[in-house]
Amino acid sequence: MNTVIHKAETRGHANHGWLNSHHTFSFANYYNPERMNFGVLRVLNDDTVSAGMGFGTHPHDNMEIVSIPLEGDLEHKDSMGNTAVIKEGDVQVMSAGTGVTHSEYNKNKDQQVKFLQIWVFPNKRNVTPRYDQISLKDIKVENKFYQVVSPHKGEQGVWVNQDAWFYLGNFEKGKADEYKIKKEGNGVYAFILEGEVEINGEKLSKRDGMGVWDTDAINVKASEDARVLLMEVPMSL
């Protein structure tokens, strides 16, 4: 088993006034050759956007982009004709494929919005761009991991063009769950959204990250009430 630990305070940081962003991996003006990616997981940005502000229309191509709101409401518009609002308890996916432009704005004028912006390299290039979002309210369970992203259309959660699975877990203090790797050769990156946990004996706190590979499973135990995101991804680009 191999592991890498990224403590919250070691992440890249950019404060643009309207946007306060922490980068687990190299992004924009933050460059660390040892923090380029975890397998096909390329970007994990922890963004806070001020009231009424946001990302103006900009392009992407050949990237699977997953957004997970943690607080507030985020308004999405794109060149495919989609207009939507995502909020805490939702998950959004956009397959950029051959090319798409989009904007993401804080819909509210009186409160900030916090969300995770996650990029995954696709296993198919130049696909037709696609947008989807789901609510977690009907699939959320307590004290165990539940699937929110998969490679397969029709499975629980949204789907991406990659052999990747994302799971969320909300745990009470003392509760634990084992996550079994779904595809040989994949690794799993755990990101602690809230609280404190132990993963295979390693103690992790809010916004810490830990990547694990060359293993069949990991065990996550909550030292305090905790919320954890697991991202299983291929380790080879």
TrEMBL record:
Pfam families: Pirin, Pirin_C_2. Keywords: Iron, Metal-binding. Its cofactor is Fe cation. One of its GO terms (molecular function) is metal ion binding. SUPFAM superfamilies: RmlC-like cupins. Residues 10-120 form the Pirin N-terminal domain. Residues 148-233 form the Quercetin 2,3-dioxygenase C-terminal cupin domain. Fe cation binds at residues 58, 60, 102, 104. Gene3D superfamilies: Jelly Rolls (2.60.120.10). InterPro entries: Pirin, Pirin_N_dom, Quercetinase_C, RmlC-like_jellyroll, RmlC_Cupin_sf. Binds 1 Fe cation per subunit. It comes from the Bacteria. Belongs to the pirin family. This is Pirin family protein. It comes from Brumimicrobium salinarum.
